[in-house]
Specification:
By secondary structure, the chain is α/β, with parallel strands linked by helices. It has helices spanning 11-23, 35-40, 47-58, 65-72, 79-83, 90-104, 109-123, 127-137, 143-146, 174-178, 180-192, 208-212, 216-235, 246-253, 255-258, 266-273, 279-283, 305-310, 316-323, 344-347, 349-364, 376-383, 393-400; strands spanning 165-169, 195-198, 241-242, 276-277, 298-301, 327-328, 370-373, 390-392. The termini are far apart.
Length: 405
């Protein structure tokens, strides 16, 4: 695609935009796997149409509210990247193009306030207490609010730090309040095999929520804080940073882009991205031996978009669980997004509900005994429509391992 970018697009952002735009050959294969295009059939609601809109904005053409709304409707699932035969890095182009469009066509004040409120809630230390309150009041809540109440967490006990082999654990924001059992399960599993998970004082949210809700500078501040907190532990022998939610892990891998214009942190961000690990990358390399057959062997595994298209770890969790005696069932259209996409489901409830219902139907079509996922947002979103409890895949692993010693 020929480009004539405006002089306002400079530095590495210009290189990112030019590389992505010139790689696109307009083939439209991306539309076949785009959730919003599948729902609407509208060109501007698919990656190819959005790429044209971003190209126009970056070349200095007029930008309208329609342009902004078309980009806002993108879930950021990155299925288009997995599909694209030309290797277009859509998500990198999106960060540059979306920022230019928001500058040319700012949101109304009301929309800005909604996004600010979501950011504040997600990062609030009180999120866990509010989630517990919501569960207590759930029978009294109207359906839209009832669907947003997180399920009750599982076991949250964790072993003491006792091994020389260590990894740094991402503590997160929403996950720490709503699903502390994700990290607890990881800690108990790895402790069995001589690995302790340690937390870094001062670290916290990866920055994905503000980064996806118009607060890129806040996301950069959170990233710098995390890098400052993790660097001493990594320098002192910790092997990796472990993120038990795939969405957070994918965002950590994007730190080099997030901090590309920060000379004090960009090299550290690159080194950190090389040491981020998803639990499946660590656990599949361990000498696992199931000592008990799974109580519920026939399972469905929901592989979040961040796991498939962001981390490129598709198929690894089902393969691991198969090693441990489970029978992962086929899931139709497993590449399609469930509609969570962080805070996207709050801003686009109708489309999010339709995508969720389609994923729940696909996951439960084979009559599985249990359903497992790998991401906090998907866990919360799918649980509202699932006919049976949805759990983290780490819980499936722990159920069949030997007792802790």
């Amino acid at each position: 695609m020929r480009t004539r970018l405006s002089d306002a697009v400079a530095g590495e952002a210009r290189q990112v935009a030019e590389t992505a735009l010139r790689a696109c050959v307009h083939c439209g294969m991306c539309n076949a796997t785009c959730p919003t295009y599948q729902l609407t059939g509208e060109e501007l609601m698919g990656p190819r149409g959005r790429i044209y809109l971003m190209k126009q904005a970056l070349e200095g053409e007029p930008v309208s509210d329609l342009t902004r709304e078309a980009l806002d409707a993108c879930l950021g699932c990155r299925a288009c990247e997995t599909t694209c035969p030309s290797g277009v890095e859509y998500h990198r182009l999106f960060e540059v193009g979306h920022a230019a469009i928001l500058e040319a066509a700012p949101r109304p004040a009301g929309a800005r306030r909604v996004r600010a409120a979501i950011r504040a809630l997600a990062l609030s230390p009180a999120f866990g207490a509010l989630a517990a309150l919501g569960r207590g009041l759930k029978p009294l809540l109207p359906r839209p609010l009832k669907d947003k109440v997180p399920p009750a967490p599982g076991r949250t006990d964790r072993p003491a730090i006792r091994h020389a082999r260590r990894m740094v654990l991402l503590t997160g924001c929403v996950q720490s309040g709503a699903a502390a059992h994700f990290n607890a399960a990881a800690a108990r599993i790895l402790d069995r095999y001589g690995i302790s998970l340690v937390e870094a004082p001062g670290a916290g949210c990866c920055g994905a929520v503000p980064g996806h809700l118009d607060a890129r500078e806040q996301a950069r501040s959170l990233a710098r804080r995390n890098l400052d907190a993790w660097a001493p532990l990594l320098n002192d022998g910790a092997e990796a940073v472990l993120a038990t939610s795939s969405g957070c892990g994918a965002y950590l891998h994007d730190y080099p882009d997030l901090l590309r214009d920060d000379p004090a942190y960009r090299d550290l961000a690159r080194r950190l991205a090389e040491r981020v690990r998803d639990p499946v990358e660590v656990i599949e390399a361990l000498p696992l031996e199931a000592v008990a057959p799974p109580a519920r062997p026939r399972i469905a595994v929901h592989e979040p978009c961040s796991l498939q298209h962001g981390l490129r770890l598709s198929g690894r969790i089902p393969a691991l669980l198969r090693r441990l005696g489970y029978e992962p069932l086929p899931v139709a259209d497993g590449h399609l997004c469930c509609g969570s996409a962080g805070a996207w489901s709050l801003l686009h409830p109708d489309m999010a509900g339709r995508l969720r219902d389609a994923r729940v139907a696909a996951l439960t079509a084979g009559g599985p005994d249990a359903v497992f996922t790998a991401n906090i947002g998907c866990w919360m979103h799918l649980s509202a429509g699932a006919p049976a409890p949805l759990r983290h895949w780490l819980e499936a692993v722990e159920e069949v391992l030997p007792p802790a010693r």
